[in-house]
Amino acid sequence: MNALGLFDNDYGEDGFRTCSVTGLNIHRSAENHVKLFGLTAVVALLVGGIFAFTVAMTRWELVGLLRPGEFYTHLTLHAWNLLIFWMVFMEIAILYVGGPIVLGRKLPITRVAKAGWVTMVLGALTINVSVWTAGGFPDENAPLLTSYAPLESPPAFYAGVVIFIVGAVVAALPFFLTLWRERRENPGKTLPLVAFGAFITSIIAFEALVGGLITFATTLLWRIEAISFMDPAWYRQMYWTIGHGTQQINLAAMVTVWYFITHVVGGAEVVSEKVSRTAFILYLFFINLGAAHHLMSDPVVSSGWRLFNTSYAFYGAAFASMIHAFAIPAGLEAGRRKRGKGGGLFGWLTSAPWKNPVFSATIFSIILFGFLGGITGVVMGQMQVNMTWHNTFATVGHFHGTVAVGTTLAFMGLVFFVIRTMFKRNLAFSRLASTQPFLYAGAMGIVVLMMMYAGLLYGVPRRTAEVVRNIPGTDFSLSAAAPLFALLGIFAVFAILAGVVFVLVAVGSLLLGDRVRPGDNADLRAISVAADGGQSSSGEEKPVHAYGMRGTFLVTLVFLAVFVVSYVLNWYLLTELWQVGL
Amino acid sequence: MSTDQQESSEPGSPLTWMRDVLTGAWRDLKSVYYANTTIWRLLKSATLLFFGFFLWTGANLLLSYRADWGFLYYVMAYGFVLLLWGPLTHLVVVPLVIRMRRSSAGTVGRYIARHGSVTNLSVFLVIVLILGTFPLGVMTFEFQLTGGAGNDVNPQLQCTKSEGTVHCHLSDASGIDRVVVTSGDQELATVSEPPFDFNIDVDDVGEVRGDKQFLVVLQDENGDTLRRYSRRVELIPG
Question: How many angstroms separate the CA of residue A191 from the nearest CA in chain B?
Answer without folding.
Answer: 36
